[in-house]
Design goal:
Blueprint lengths: L2 H23 L3 H6 L1 E8 L12 E2 L2 H11 L3 E14 L4 E14 L11 E15 L2 E16 L1
Parallel strand pairs: 1-6
Antiparallel strand pairs: 1-2, 3-4, 4-5, 5-6
Amino acid sequence: MLPNEVADALEAIRCLKARYFRGVDGKDAALLRSVFTDDAVTDFRSESPDGDASLLQRDPDAFVRNTLAVLDGTVTVHSASMPEIELLSADEARGRWTLHDRIWVIDAARCPLPFRSLQGWGYYHDRYRRGAQGWRIAETRLERLKVLVD
């Protein structure tokens, strides 16, 4: 890849991850679904103390539905920084992002979460693939390092 192509790919991937978080925080199902490939794998087993196997999904539509259902009645703010993005080819990349997130339960009657608020830190480990629609997330895995709940 030429230097300008590398720079364009890196920026497209950074913008892709920003749209992911905007989709989650804005509870925007269409936007959130648009960042994934059709065969995307999402691994959020670190969200469960027992590594719940159902949090490893190979269906981005189900991931979007489940995520937004769990977050119903909440306000969330996700911030990712310090991306380490490695281009593996012109159409594949992997990345690691430092994560800090906050979740506040505003309406406990609608929200299934067992806490009033959460503050978390960790990493997202992603694989990206470029197709006709541009760069998309093909795999994402959340690795939690620390969680504080109230």
